[in-house]
Amino acid sequence: MLDIRWLEDLAAIAEYRNLTKAAEKRNVTQSGLSRRLQSLERWAGVLLIDRSKNPIYLTKAGEEMLAISSDVVGRLNGTRRAIRDEADKRMTAVRFAAPHVLSVTFFPNWLPVLQRQVGSLPLNVRSGSLRYCCDALENGEVDFVVSFVDARTDLNSADDALPLSRCDSILVGRDKLVPLSVPDRAGEPRHRLISGSETEVLYLGYETVCTLGKAVDGAIGRDGSLSRLRLIFENAQADGLRAMTLLGMGVAWLPLSMTHNDILTGKLVRAGPERLDADLDIRVFRANRHMAKRSETVWREMSARSMTARRKIAGPFDKMLIGGDVI
User: Fold this and answer.
1) For 183, 200, 293, 307, which has the most beta carbons within 10 A of its beta carbon?
2) Which DSSP category does 222 fall into?
3) 224 and 162 together in one domain
4) Which of 19-23, 103-107, 259-263 has the highest mean pLDDT?
5) How many domains does the chain have?
6) What pLDDT is recorded for position 89?
7) pLDDT tens digit string along 1-17?
């Protein structure tokens, strides 16, 4: 199916005749722009740019495609703006999208605080995969995306498959991924991570495209002497991994906000040292475009109070004690 963004990419390439400059214009990386151009060429069935020349020139087919697409894109964008303006007059809710785990662990605490700041303005939250959330933001279906970000990650070097690294963002909370296991009869972890051990440990992991999965990979990669992990189960959802962990299937890195009751009641125990934790930032992202007045108001309030919100959210988990050790 044709994606209107591909046509806009082609127009930027024709304007700048340089992939790097066109990518900056389109707010994607050069590799991301190249992939989208290839998708358009596959859809068209022909090459649209001459890659043998510098600066870049469109092929004859590319020029024909550009002539038609400029009119089509202009008409579609004009129609979309008119539809959105009319819908904006009727709609009062500020719309958020977030991965499922945050809608369960973060929003119940955070939304009441936010509503006290902005008054009676209604807030709407959609849950889905991070890819879904990013698409909803890019398509204007939501105003903001709330997402985990590896605290050690430079946002400017984040995965170019997702647009969040090129959006404005503010820090509103913190969490951490902790390696957890069910306890044995002695209260020790059934699946224990030991430095330098040759014993395999059964491992429950996130899918590689998942933000949490990348954070865990970073934590594992920083410890070169970690026990050998044998991946036996993957899931994109933290609650899916939590369920498998509670069944005793292996060790998993789980959000502390989701599992603190499991830890306090002894259902789960730390499976490895604190250095294996993955610190997470919780950030609110907005697209680099004008928003409705109500959404701009909410953004200003969140920006002005972001550090206060962070402290309130993070506080309950900062000094959690399990077996006398700070988890």
Assistant:
1) 183
2) T
3) no
4) 259-263
5) 3
6) 54
7) 778 888 888 888 888 88
